[in-house]
Amino acid sequence: MAKKRPQTKAKRPQLSDTEVPVVGAREPCPCGSGRRYKACHGRAAAQAVTELVHRPFEGLPGECDWVALRELVPAATAELTLKDGLPEGVPSVTLATVLPMAWPALRRDDGSVLLGLQNDTASGDLSRDLADTLQRALTAQPGTPVQGRRAPADGPRLQDLIDPQGTFEPVVHSGFEFWVPDPENATPEVAASLERANAAAIPTVRLQGVDAAYWCETPEKNHLRWVMPHAEERLLDALARLQAAGRSGLGEGTRLVGSFRAHGLTVPVWDLPSGVGAQDVEKPAAEFAERLAEALASDVPLTAEERRARGGLTNRQVTLS
User: Fold this and answer.
1) What is the H or E stretch that residue 198 is in?
2) Model pTM?
3) To 5 degrees, how large is the angle CA 294–CA 266–CA 206?
């Protein structure tokens, strides 16, 4: 019998690490190794997308307001300024707290883009996930929503797309009518989603005299939630100094009750009497900001009373993200 000639397989061109696209975990790795993606380049990609970025909005204009719109504010929008300007056919790009049916983004009929902020994301880097959604929305067909997906591990982040010198001025809305230009003629699906969202929205107002402070109304009492950019440990020390001195309130009947931790920033929270509105805390909040600046500048060790106050604040701290 004649010997069989050995079969040789043509080698597939090898791709560099930066050229390997993201595919399903069980699919062959596009690099040509013959292994499944999850056992090859997918390992590094998985590590990149699961590594948590604690301050995803750091470096963006209005970082504190980004955190507030992500975690605290029901209905708000903010115009975004892109580094390279708006593409042809895209008259505007607007960040929105949430979109109908929880769409990650929407390209409207007129070509404008709405980017949803309060969505589940596939990785630990919220900034990269949002940037991927934004890029796809800029090229989507007008009149179509953008669906979620796993962003490439080496894709751009919001910091790569948004102009760091641009302004970021959130506009808080009483409801979600900003979703559609003509709410009365919305599709039944969007109209139902709009009705549900409006019914669940907590009345919220952004203070004008200080940055990233949001008043909200609940059935039993009102609250002020203030996202602050200061390092957490130093801020807690400063709040403890004011708490121990009886200077942490925002007027009669108000009380600093604790704080949230969200996206690497600290959010002190005050309880307010139900009759205290947003306008009522404008002046007290500005005065508190001055007291806080003095306390932040102090390097004197905390007293025993201040340490107890700090412990109380720490025990009532809740991590949102």
Assistant:
1) helix 188-200
2) 0.83
3) 85
